[in-house]
Structure formats: C-alpha cells, structure tokens
Amino acid sequence: MRIVTLKNGVRVLLAPDSLAAAVDVGVWYPAGVRTEREGRSGLTYLLGRRRFAAPGAADARTHLEAEGAALNTNINPDFTGASETVPAGVLEQALAFEAKRMRTPAIDDATLKSDVDAVRAERGRRIGSSAIGRGIEALYATAFAGHPYARPVIGRDEDLARLTTADVTAYAADRFDVSRAVVSIVGRCDPDRALAAARKDFEGLRASTPPPPKDAAAPMPAQTRARRRRRARADVGADPDRRLAWAG
After folding, report:
1. What are phi and psi of 224, to 5 degrees?
2. What is the reported pLDDT for 244?
3. CB within 8 Å of 162: residues ≥ 6 apart
4. pLDDT at position 58, please?
C-alpha cells in the first residue's frame, strides 16, 4: 500500500492487487455525527447527500453504470464516503467522476431550504412514519445517552429546521474541503498510471486557504457500562396483531 499527498492536500491511497477482477475507487471525508455540534445534527447527511448527488456528474454516473459499475455511498457516525467498483479499464472514468462530484457549488438560502425540505421529508418517511425507524432511533438515544452516537445520522427534525447557510458553509469548509479528502484506489490497477490519473483529476481542485486542521474533532466522551432501559409502544395499523413494542 502507498499513500501520496497531492499539492492541495488530497491524499491518494493506492493498494494494487493483480489478482483482483476489478478496481474500487472511493472518496472519504472525516465527517459524521461525532463531528457535528449539538443542536446541528443532520449537517453531515445533508452535505453528503448534496456532494454525492451532484447534478453535474449525472452523465458520468450513467456512463459508469453502463460499463457495469456498482456504486455505493456511506454516511455513518464516523465518516462519509462514496465508492464504485468498476472494470479495470474504466478506472480513469471513475476518478474523473469523483473529481466532478467534488466541485459541488456553494449553497445559498434557496438551495438550503430545498435540501433541508428534502431531508426532512425523507426523515418523515424513514423514521416519522415507521415504528421500526422510531424504535431504532430510541435505541441509539438510550444506549449512547450523552454521546454523539445518540444523534441520528439523518439528523433530528428540529435541528434540520434551524440550519443556516452559515452553519452549512462552515461545516463544509471544515469537513468536506478538498484538503480533507482521501481517494482510495484498491484492486486491479497499475499504481503509477492510477496515480497519474488521480493527479490529473484532483490536484487542480482548489482547497481552502489555509487548509482546516486535521484534528478539529472534539474528543469523544467516555461511555459508562451502566444498564439503561426505555419502553415505548407504537400502533402501526388498525389490526392489533400488527402493533409493535420495543424495549431499549
């Protein structure tokens, strides 16, 4: 394995494997619920969703899928990333696709409102109207009381409603800046050719000046091993047999 830092701070991780049938390209950011301030949950989800669904990269995505690429996104408590597994001959196109997704335009008040409305609607479908979704949220809130992991990845509705463009811009500069990104290239590839392609696509992207500190995350609070319990009941339909109870 080899790690190369480009001039703008992007780190490229190369792990060639001649026995692999394909190559995996990923872009990773140090952003998750544990890096969000209390009262501002959902920032990571909103910005990750915006970054990885960048409309300017739609044609490139379609091309990759036509070549057999399998795309995936991952937004979790500790990090945010996207990756695609592609045939070795499509590596350059995959890198160019990810570079396009890094060029997300600045967010304004109208765009923020649209994005927040979309995330709140998604939250309503996945959690607000789902007994299982509410149960899982209650479980994490109980198990990780007083800890950032207690916050839902998609954010709390009241937190999403209070987000401002200043909140989003500052968090994006801190956690989603070009200088924060790690580009991973793992699998069947020529490492020298892969690095040259990564330099071509990523090194020209502008990082913030000065780059944000690498250790900006607040220390994680210690967790105790105390037993915690919470009981709730939800009616998911008129049929009493469909009622769901959970205990956390």
Report:
1. -90, 165
2. 45
3. 39, 40
4. 86
